[in-house]
Amino acid sequence: MAASDQKPHVSTVRPRSYQDESYLHGFLGTVGDLHKAGEFQDVVLEVEGRRFPCHRLVLSAASPYFRAMFTSDMAESRQKTVVLQGLDAGMFGEILSYIYSGTLHVSLDKVQPLYQAADLLQLNYVRDTCSSYMAMNVERSTCVDLYKFADDFFVDIVQKQCLQWIARHFTEFSFNGEFYSLSVNQLTEIISHDELDVKDETAVWEAVVRWVQHSREDRLHHLPSILPHIRFNFLTSDDTAAILEHPLIREDPGSSEVIRNVAQKRNNDLKSRLGMTTEMVLLSVVNSRDLLFMNPREGKYISCSYKPEDRPFATDVTVTSDNNIYVLSREQDSNDQLSMFKYSHAGNVWEDAGMSSVSKSLRLEGDLKYYEEHLVEVDRTLYYLAENVREGVVRMRKYNKYTDQWQECSQLQFDIVCSNTTYDFTAALCCSSHIYFLRTKDVHRYNPSEDRWYKQSPSPELYHDIHSAVVMGTEIFCTDFYFSMTVAYDTESDSWQELQGWPSQGNRETNRTPSLFVLENQLHIWLASASNDHNEGRLQHLVYVYDMTADVWRDLNATLPDTEYYSYGRLCPVSRIYLPYLKV
Question: Whole-structure pTM over 0.90, yes or no?
Fold first, then answer.
C-alpha cells in the first residue's frame, strides 16, 4: 500500500484536567504572607486617619465594592491613597484580616459594626455570618438591642428571631423598661404576632396602656393606629365596654370610634394568640364522624360531633408550621378526584381549601388498595405523595400557591420486597426541611432544593414491623405494632438507637394499634389494651410519656371517654386549639 493511502493514527488517549489542592489551599496563605511583609502593595486605604497598605488585585477579588472602585473611571482607580468614609477603622482592620486570611473573628461587642462594614463593602459571607451570629445570640439581655438593629438595617433573620423571643416572653417583657423604648412601628409589629404568649387579649391592651402612659404627651396620638392590632374578637363584650371607659380612650374620641368599628367587624380570621391555645391531639371515633380533641397532660378531653357531610373522610392530615390543619380527602373505596379541606378554627368546621385538585396532574388508576397517600408540609409548601406498592414507586407533587397548580417532583423508586404481611407500613414526615419516607425496611430522604431522593441507613431489624412514627426535633421515633420496641432515627448522623418498649404488659395485651405523638415537646404514645381475662371485655386507653433522661415510659393515667378511637389521618395530628372554639 502506498504511503499516501495509509490512514493517520488516531490516539485514544483523552486529555484530562488536574487540580492542585495544595496550591489552592496555600495560595491565600501566600497572599497573607505578602501582606504582612508589605511586598507588592500598590494602594493605601485610609480609614479614620489610619493607613492600611493593600493590593488592588486582592481587594477587587474579594469585594465587588473595590472591584468597581479600581476598574472604573472613578478618581480612586488612579490614586495611590484612597480615603474611605463611613467605616470604623477597627472594623475595617477586621475586614482586611478576613480578606487576607479567610478567617473571621466575631464577638457580640463588634458584630453590629462589623455587619455594617461588610454591608457597605458588599462582603456577603461576612454579612451573612454576622446575621447568623446575632440570630444565635438572641436572649433576654440582647434581644431589644438586636431587634432595633435588625429593624434599622433590614436583617430579616435576626428580626424574626427577636420577634419570636419577645412573643414567647411577652408578659414579662411588657413590664421591662426596654419595652417602653420601642417605636410605635415596633410596638405594633410585636402585638400583631400570632405567637404572643398571653392567656387573654386584655394583657395586650394593658401593655399598650403602659407604653402610652410612659410618654403620654408624645404617644397618645398614636393610639388610634395601635388599637386595630388588638384582637377584639377575643375580648368579651364586658372587656370591650371597660376599654371604652378607660381614661385614655375617653380622652381621644378617635380611639373610641376605632374600637367600635373593629369590635363591630369581629374579624374571625384573626388567629388566637399562642398563649390562649392548648396543644390537642385529634382522634377519630370508630364508626362515626365525631372527633376527640385531647390533652392528657392537662386532663382535657373534648368530643365534637359532626354531620357526615360536614367532616371529610381523611386520606391524610397534616398540621402546618403556622398551625393550619389540611385534610386530604378521598371517599372510602373510591378512586374519584382528591379534595383538599382546611380546618376553620373559629368555626370548628372543614372548608374547601380553595386549591386545584392534585388529581388534575396525577390520576391514580386501578385497585386503590395498592396506593398509600400522604400529605406533608416542608417550609410552608405542601407535598402530596402517592405510593404504588405493586410497582415500587412513590410519585410526588408540590403545591405552588402562586399559580394554584401541583407541580411534578422527582419520583422515588424502591425495592419491592415480598412480605408475609398484607400491610407494609409507610410514613412521610418533615424533618429539618427535608421529607423522610419510611418503609418497614428502608428510609429515603428528599431534598427539596435539589429535587432529589437519597437512600439513608435502613431501619434496624425489629421483632415486628414498624407501625407508627413521629418527628421530634431532629429525630424520627418509630415503634412496632405491639409497642414492644421503639427506635429513634437521628437525621443528622443517619444512625439508629433503640429505646425501651412497653414498660409492663402485666396480664394485658395490645388490642389497638399504637400511635406516637409529640405533645409539649415530649414524646407520647396512645394505645388501647384489653385484659387477657375474657370476663373483662372493655378496652383500656393508655397514654405514656417518654422520660428521655431515665429511658423509661411513664403512665399518664389518662381518662379518655369510654369509646373506641383511631388516628385521624395516617399519623396522629397535634394542633394548637383555642378551646372556646370547640362548641360542646
Answer: no
- Confirm if 395 and 386 have CB atoms less than 8 A apart: yes
- The per-residue pLDDT for range 211-267, each reduced to its tens digit, is 999 999 999 999 999 999 999 989 988 999 999 999 999 988 889 889 988 877 776
pLDDT of 434-469, one tens digit each? 999 998 778 999 999 999 999 999 877 655 577 899
Domain containing 515 equals 277-581
**Does residue 2 belong to any structural domain of this protein?**
no
DSSP bridge pairs for 183 = none
C-alpha cell at 558: 389518662
> What per-residue confidence (pLDDT) applies to 11?
58
Q: What is the DSSP string of 52-105?
A: EEE-HHHHHHH-HHHHHHHHSSSGGGT-SEEEPPS--HHHHHHHHHHHHHS---
Q: Could you tell me the three cell numbers for 167? A: 412573643
Beta bridge partners of 316: 328
Q: How far apart are CA 301 and CA 135, in angstroms?
A: 39
Q: What grid cell was written down for 335?
A: 378512586
- In the β-sheet with 522-531, what is the strand arrangement from edge to edge? 508-519, 522-531, 539-547, 552-555
The grid coordinates listed for 163 are 420577634
Contact 326, 305 (CB under 8 A): no
Q: Are 243 and 320 contained in the same domain?
A: no
Q: What band does 369 get if pLDDT is binned at 50, 70 and 90?
A: very low
C-beta contacts of 330-334 below 8 A and 24+ residues apart: 330/373, 333/368, 334/368
Please check the confidence at residue 286 and state whether its pLDDT lies above 70: yes
Cα–Cα nearest to 122, from 170, 68, 176: 68
Helix (H) or strand (E) holding 25: helix 21-37
**Contact in structure between 248 and 223 (CB atoms under 8 Å):** yes
Whichever domain contains 384, its CATH number is 2.120.10.80
- State the Cα–Cα distance between residues 112 and 159, nearest whole angstrom: 13
What is the Cα 398 distance to its own chain's centre? 17
| Domain finish residue from 59, 87, 103 | 103
| CATH (domain of 30) | 3.30.710.10
CA 579, CA 280: separation in Å to the nearest integer? 9
CB hemisphere CA count around 159 (13 angstroms): 13
Confidence of residue 422 (pLDDT cuts 50, 70, 90): very low
Please, what is the end-to-end C-alpha distance for the chain in angstroms? 103
